Input
Amino acid sequence: MSYTIDKNLEKGMRLLENEGKTEEGIELINHSAKTGTTKGKSYFSIAQIIREGKFGVQTDVEKSRVFYDRAAEYLVENPDSMDYLYLGDYFNYGLGSQATNKQKALEYYELASRSNDSIKAIAEERADVIRSSFIIHSKKENTLSDSLGAPHPVESSVFNSLNAAPNNSQFGISFERIEPSSFGGVQDDLPTSFTTPPVANQIFNDNATINTPAIDSEYKDDILLVKALKLLDSPASSLQDKVDGFELVRTSCDEGSVRAAVLLGYFYEGKTSIKEKNLEEAQRYYELAISRGSVVAEFRLGLLYLIQNTSFTNEDKGHQLILSSARKGYSFALNYLGDCFREKVMDPRNLSLAYRYYALAGERNLGLAYHNMAEIDASRQDIELARKHEDYAKKLGYDANQSPYDSLASVLHF
Output
């Protein structure tokens, strides 16, 4: 068995990943999704870009589910090895509206592993992870829960005890899952409910037009932000260059950029040498970003409210904002909740809850969360599982020598 890829999809992804030509690449992928010969793969690629926030597209997990569902509708038609792999991922990680189903994911991975192409090794590795998790939980007289769509084995007791800590009910998040729907009703057009992400020239909709003055004007705010980041991040930039970069961020914010508003709040927290610490200004910009829909700003403002002896200290507001950010799936907020429960180790249920939240954060590609899971695994003498989670952490960019909470990358990814 071998796989095929529509020529427009293949060329579009190459332009995006290797040549940095976002406009041409996206236009080709759009065309492939609507009229190509491998629409399932095209929709799956679009969904991945939206979910992971690649190539400047704003991250939006819920919108990506629409495209993952559309991909699954096409992937089941005359599937090849790559289609089987994608269907395995769909059920393994709970990418769409279908509930996570490890058994079904394993079946698709096994079908994909029967190929003699490059898909074989990938499918076998992911199938082995699921099989290992089944074995681990069988030894512990538990069954693997399908409640969490994440690429790692997690003890089922974690899920059963989510609301088991009465003294910490303020952190008891309930994550609702959409009821499974059958694949069907395939349409060739992109979902009309999907709106253009607020970044320059990154468009996935039926009426997309590329290289028009209107687009450049509409997304002027983020174009300015990109210019600002080049000045701020370049090792060759002088102090004046960085000051100029900061002013571009401010202008970008004035033009309506959500990311710029968050970044200004970050600067006024005193995390860099660019601006002196001014928590009141940080609060103001985070509130502005929240009004524009930022879950990152919710989390960071929540942390500000928890700082003692400020003019706006408010623990209740802080907890509410952090919970709101976590409910919307922000990985650092979920990881923070894991830290909260982990500190209360006198009750063993809290450690299981911490593990649960770390797993949710890990599902959203936060390497730090996998590292935290590995530490708990090691404390339980489960060395093999700890190694696996450390491997996941490293693959996702976790570096023990960096401070992930204060990285610009964590601030700018929505």
Observations:
- Confidence is low (pLDDT under 50) at residues 136-219.
- The CA atoms of residues 339 and 354 lie 6 Å apart.
